UniProtKB/TrEMBL annotation, chain A:
<feature type="transmembrane region" description="Helical">
    <location>
        <begin position="20"/>
        <end position="36"/>
    </location>
</feature>
<keyword id="KW-1133">Transmembrane helix</keyword>
<keyword id="KW-0812">Transmembrane</keyword>
<keyword id="KW-0472">Membrane</keyword>
<dbReference type="Pfam" id="PF09489">
    <property type="entry name" value="CbtB"/>
</dbReference>
<protein>
    <recommendedName>
        <fullName>CbtB-domain containing protein</fullName>
    </recommendedName>
</protein>
<dbReference type="InterPro" id="IPR012667">
    <property type="entry name" value="CbtB_put"/>
</dbReference>
From TrEMBL, chain B:
<protein>
    <submittedName>
        <fullName>Membrane protein</fullName>
    </submittedName>
</protein>
<feature type="transmembrane region" description="Helical">
    <location>
        <begin position="146"/>
        <end position="165"/>
    </location>
</feature>
<keyword id="KW-1133">Transmembrane helix</keyword>
<feature type="transmembrane region" description="Helical">
    <location>
        <begin position="177"/>
        <end position="199"/>
    </location>
</feature>
<dbReference type="Pfam" id="PF09490">
    <property type="entry name" value="CbtA"/>
</dbReference>
<feature type="transmembrane region" description="Helical">
    <location>
        <begin position="12"/>
        <end position="31"/>
    </location>
</feature>
<keyword id="KW-0472">Membrane</keyword>
<feature type="transmembrane region" description="Helical">
    <location>
        <begin position="71"/>
        <end position="94"/>
    </location>
</feature>
<dbReference type="InterPro" id="IPR012666">
    <property type="entry name" value="CbtA_put"/>
</dbReference>
Amino acid sequence: MTTVASAPAAPSVSAVRVPVWAWALLAFAVFALYFVSQENGALLSAPAAQMLHELTHDARHALGVPCH
Amino acid sequence: MGLSFGSVLRRGVLAGMLAGLAAAVVIWLVVEPVIRRALVIEDRRGMHGGQAAGLPMHGGEEPLVSRAAQVVGGAVTAVIVGVAVGVVFAVVFARLRDRLPGSGDFGRALVLAAIGFAAVSLLPALKIPANPPAVGDPSTVGRRTMLYAVTLLLGVAIAVVVPALDRRLAGRVMAPSTRWALDVVAVVLLVGLVMAFVPGTPDQVPADVPADLVWDFRLASLAQLAALWLTLGLTFGLLLERAGAARNDDVRADTGAPVSA
């Protein structure tokens, strides 16, 4: 699995051109991950954050992120 | 003409959704039964005034959200997480496609999924292991979150540094087996450093939480994370491979070997 990969001179597959907006999309996806897994009041009001915490509670535990 | 980014992204979103669904199924079948066992312990503490004794408790007397809503909410969250991970996966895959090892897009997708699982799921799980309800001390959650995030970022850093080292080594003439061995040594060394020098969780598992409950939960959590990454890699790879076969371009241009892992 390594030998093919590493011949640097001959890229056997064409690279995919990644447009600039894709990086903004990536940042948004990372933000969404933060929001559902970690948001506890840094951005939301306390009651809204509490609600979000309770709704995402089981998945947060299951994903292994520190929950409470 | 190569693969367009849009077609990669669409497959990432679809594969991510399926990965989230797979994770939700594993949560429902494997994780929830363990959470229920942990909630029994929390309830028992509530009856015996455990909150006064300083043991971790959940919220107040009136639950803000019912258990049923929490179970459904957990499943929905898993799907959202799957889609978001799928988007990140697609962008990274597109950027690195010509550099990823593996024969064919299927092999490359599996390699990237394995690296993703190891770097952002397995390494943090080993350093700051998952805990069921009734274990975490709310007063240390900030510190635990910080340590978790640091470990995750170090995992990503290792996943970036080791391939860079590999390319360095490729610059000198060296047998592939030697280079492969040095890569493995580098991974072991760096992971060892992270495990040795990043501080562990400050929490102690309370005495009324049985050890096998904690073990079962950590195993269930890892099973769920593995299901997410495995489904993502498999479906993304299959979807892309089929697209390639349909367009019939870069599959033939590839190194030739059929996917046989």
